[in-house]
């Protein structure tokens, strides 16, 4: 998982399909990130904040009870233990530092489950930046707690009533906001999607997850690597960060998409939100609505580097359905005392389903990124379980 | 087919300011009559939107028009085929987002336009960096691809952009999405002057051109204007071809006084 080509492409995917008004800002961002990412002062500040404020490194937990039950050895990379409760903080700390470095004071972001919105609002509070977060009306309703958290942190949350009223439409509205304010405002995109340089930049800002996990797994596995590395994929940022640490190992990489928004499993190449990737769309090119229990994965596209990894065969992408996700969430809660968010419960659902089959043979070692904690979903899960 | 750039140059040469009104294709059963009414009321070209599910450069009015057209069953191929039978004597140019073109296939989309008498295409999310594949197919078929210039486009980029724009150069008059505004943005005249200094291709400005007075103000620097949201707001409120033609005639009269 190297640097994309000069056109911002991973193989045939990626690129910069942007209105002219946003092209200079993306070029400025690419230049700023390229310099910052090679600047020891920037890197030191980024890593110091991740350590002292966000709580890195996060541990890898071996799940003895679950492993015994499934017949495969399960290790969890615990992004749920970061400040704000998900991997999203890694990305926003980096982008907030960049915002300041570019001399901008305003930040706009989209959010699905609200985890990226909360993380962005948190970083903006820390750095004294003004923050506007767009969130689909459906998600505002099912993630009311995160809406309140964002407001507590000083962000303005704007509900989006257009289209499917979920993450896709929140991104549309954030882009429209950005076009009108681009000279003063940074768009803090929350996943490895959008126009170049975002897919590359966000993956680099998330690779700390995979880099830490590889070293931690080696100390648990006597120098070896896991046989399988698994993460959930909506846009795909926690998976990209995780895979970045293992792409050069022998580990098999598995991304788990929601069955109702499985862009790689069920989509075809298309262009939306600035890049070319797999996309759920109809015969005319209209983007279809995703349908998932998980607001964070409820998206009809996927990051372009995942499309590339799938095309190369380096990573495999599989769907998980809502019912098995709810089962997996309860299983981890009861066996290990860890309540996962609905998003990583997708990754776990695949492990539960595949364990002991040729897909994930008995005795295998599997590392899964637990991208976020389940507190935000407690209300929704309570209602779903009746 | 009526060629886009040649026609616009000819009309400009004759001392006329250029008027390009917009309609969302497939919005209402009589939308093709709207195209004809625009032409009869003094349009120099007509822009037809091929609705897309996720129009990120459009404000609330065009978003609503696009969604309603889609709800009414509009498809890119259906709208283009209908235009093939429009029988109007002004050039037609379609506006759509790149996924519609990409899904159709570059050569197939270009051929579909030409076969139906449409000589121009505007694809607002296809910047210079991504233009080559489509431009190759469009050029080979004879479709003129109109590029958009923005107030934040730097001078060196503007020079490359006007070079590769065909039909006319579309000046995005303000930083923001489509939609009506109370007054013409200050960035509009600045961009119009920069474009006029950079090219002899027709320079037509859109975004926020909402009234006859706006049109006249903008056309004092530019070769013409594109008006979309002001017309589509009325369309969404139920206006038919006659009422919309009256709006276009009002814009025409204001431009003729510039």
Outline:
The complex is a heterodimer of chains A (386) and B (258). With 386 residues, chain A is α/β, with parallel strands linked by helices.
SSE layout and pairing:
The complex is a heterodimer of chains A (386) and B (258).
Chain A: E1 9-10, E2 13-14, H1 23-36, H2 40-52, E3 60-62, H3 64-70, E4 73-78, H4 88-101, E5 106-111, H5 115-127, E6 130-136, H6 137-142, H7 144-152, E7 156-160, H8 167-181, E8 185-187, H9 198-220, E9 228-232, H10 237-246, E10 252-258, H11 263-266, E11 268-272, E12 275-279, H12 304-312, E13 315-320, H13 322-336, H14 342-354, E14 365-370, H15 378-385
Parallel strand pairs in A: 4-14, 5-6, 5-8, 6-7, 9-10, 9-14, 10-13
Antiparallel strand pairs in A: 1-2, 3-4, 11-12
Helix pairs in contact in A: 2-4, 4-5, 4-9, 5-7, 9-10, 13-14
Chain B: H1 4-13, E1 18-24, H2 31-40, E2 46-49, H3 60-71, H4 76-83, E3 92-95, H5 98-104, H6 106-115, E4 120-122, H7 132-141, E5 144-149, H8 155-164, E6 169-172, H9 186-198, E7 203-206, H10 212-219, E8 224-227, H11 229-236, H12 241-256
Parallel strand pairs in B: 1-2, 1-8, 2-3, 3-4, 4-5, 5-6, 6-7, 7-8
Overall description:
Chain A is of the alpha/beta class and 386 residues long. Chain A folds into 2 domains: 9-48 and 87-198, Rossmann fold (3-Layer(aba) Sandwich); 57-86 and 207-385, 3-Layer(aba) Sandwich (Rossmann fold), CATH 3.40.50.1100. Chain A has 15 helices and 14 strands. Chain A has helices spanning 23-36, 40-52, 64-70, 88-101, 115-127, 137-142, 144-152, 167-181, 198-220, 237-246, 263-266, 304-312, 322-336, 342-354, 378-385, and strands spanning 9-10, 13-14, 60-62, 73-78, 106-111, 130-136, 156-160, 185-187, 228-232, 252-258, 268-272, 275-279, 315-320, 365-370. In chain A, strands 3-4-14-9-10-13 form a 6-stranded mixed beta sheet, sandwiched between helices. Chain A has a 4-stranded parallel beta sheet with strand order 7-6-5-8, with helices on both faces. In chain A, helix 9 (198-220) packs across helix 10 (237-246). Chain A is globular and about 55 Å long. The N and C termini of chain A lie far apart (43 Å). The mean pLDDT of chain A is 96. Chain B has 258 residues and is α/β, with parallel strands linked by helices. Chain B has a single domain (16-251), classed as TIM Barrel (Alpha-Beta Barrel), CATH 3.20.20. Helix content of chain B is 47%, strand content 14%. Chain B is built from 12 helices and 8 strands. Chain B is globular and about 40 Å long. Chain B starts with a helix and ends with a helix. An 8-stranded parallel barrel of chain B has the order 1-2-3-4-5-6-7-8, surrounded by 9 helices. The chains are: A alpha/beta (386), B alpha/beta (258). The A-B interface holds A 7, 15-21, 23-25, 162-163, 168-169, 172, 175-176, 179-183, 269-274, 276, 279, 281, 283-287 and B 52-57, 59, 63, 67, 70, 75-77, 98-104, 124-130, 147-154, 157, 161, 172, 175-177.
């Amino acid at each position: 998982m190297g640097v994309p080509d000069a056109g911002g492409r991973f193989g045939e995917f990626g690129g910069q399909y942007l209105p002219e008004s946003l092209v200079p800002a993306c070029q400025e961002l690419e230049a700023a990130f390229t310099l910052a990412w090679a600047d020891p002062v920037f890197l030191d500040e980024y890593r110091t904040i991740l350590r002292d404020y966000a709580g890195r490194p996060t541990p890898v937990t071996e799940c003895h009870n679950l492993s015994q039950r499934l017949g495969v050895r399960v290790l969890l990379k615990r992004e749920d233990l970061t400040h704000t409760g998900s991997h999203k903080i890694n990305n926003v700390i980096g982008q907030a530092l960049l915002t300041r470095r570019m001399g901008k004071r305003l930040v706009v972001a989209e959010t699905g489950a609200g985890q990226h919105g909360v993380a962005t609002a948190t970083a903006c509070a820390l750095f004294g930046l003004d923050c506007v977060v767009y969130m689909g009306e459906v998600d505002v309703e099912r993630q009311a707690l995160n809406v309140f958290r964002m407001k507590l942190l000083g962000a303005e949350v704007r509900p989006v009533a257009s289209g499917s009223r979920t993450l896709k439409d929140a991104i549309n509205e954030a882009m429209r906001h950005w076009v009108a304010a681009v000279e003063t405002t940074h768009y803090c995109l929350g996943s490895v999607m959008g126009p170049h340089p975002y897919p590359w930049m966000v993956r680099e800002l998330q690779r700390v997850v995979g880099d830490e996990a590889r070293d931690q797994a080696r100390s648990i596995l006597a120098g070896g690597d896991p046989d399988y590395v698994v993460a959930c994929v909506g846009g795909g940022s926690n998976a990209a960060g995780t895979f970045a640490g293992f792409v050069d190992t022998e580990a098999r990489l598995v991304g788990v998409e929601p069955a109702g928004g499985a862009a790689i499993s069920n989509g075809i190449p298309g262009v939306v939100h600035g890049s070319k990737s797999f996309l759920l769309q109809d015969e005319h090119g209209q983007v279809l609505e995703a349908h998932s229990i998980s607001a964070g994965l409820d998206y009809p596209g996927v990051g372009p580097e995942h499309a590339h990894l799938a095309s190369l065969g380096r990573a495999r992408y599989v769907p998980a359905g809502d019912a098995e996700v709810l089962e997996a969430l309860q299983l981890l809660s009861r066996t290990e005392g860890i309540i996962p968010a609905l998003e990583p419960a997708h990754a776990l659902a695949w492990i539960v389903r595949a364990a002991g089959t040729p897909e994930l043979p008995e005795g295998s070692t599997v590392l899964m990124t637990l991208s976020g904690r389940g507190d935000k979903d407690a209300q929704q899960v309570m209602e779903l379980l009746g | 087919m009526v060629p886009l750039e040649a026609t616009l140059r000819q009309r400009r040469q004759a001392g006329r300011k250029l008027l390009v009104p917009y309609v969302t294709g497939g919005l209402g059963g009589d939308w093709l009559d709207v195209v004809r009414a625009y032409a009869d009321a003094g349009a120099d070209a007509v822009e037809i939107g091929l609705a897309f599910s996720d129009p990120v450069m459009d404000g609330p009015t065009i978003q609503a028009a696009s969604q309603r057209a889609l709800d009414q069953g509009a498809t890119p191929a259906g709208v283009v085929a209908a235009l093939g039978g429009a029988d109007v004597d002004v050039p037609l140019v379609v506006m759509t987002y790149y996924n519609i073109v990409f899904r159709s296939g570059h050569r197939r989309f270009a051929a579909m336009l030409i076969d139906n008498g449409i000589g121009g295409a505007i694809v607002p999310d296809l910047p210079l960096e991504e233009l080559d594949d489509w431009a190759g197919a469009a050029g080979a078929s004879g479709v003129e691809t109109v590029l958009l210039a923005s107030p934040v486009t730097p001078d060196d980029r503007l020079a490359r952009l006007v070079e590769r724009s065909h039909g006319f150069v579309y000046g995005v008059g303000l930083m923001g999405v489509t939609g009506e505004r109370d007054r013409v943005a200050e960035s509009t005249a600045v961009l119009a002057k920069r474009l006029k200094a950079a090219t002899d291709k027709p320079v037509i400005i859109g975004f926020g051109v909402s009234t006859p007075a706006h049109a006249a103000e903008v056309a004092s620097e530019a070769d013409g204007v594109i008006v979309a949201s002001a017309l589509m707001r009325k369309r969404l409120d139920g206006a038919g071809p006659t009422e919309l033609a009256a709006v276009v005639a009002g814009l025409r009269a204001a431009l003729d006084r510039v």
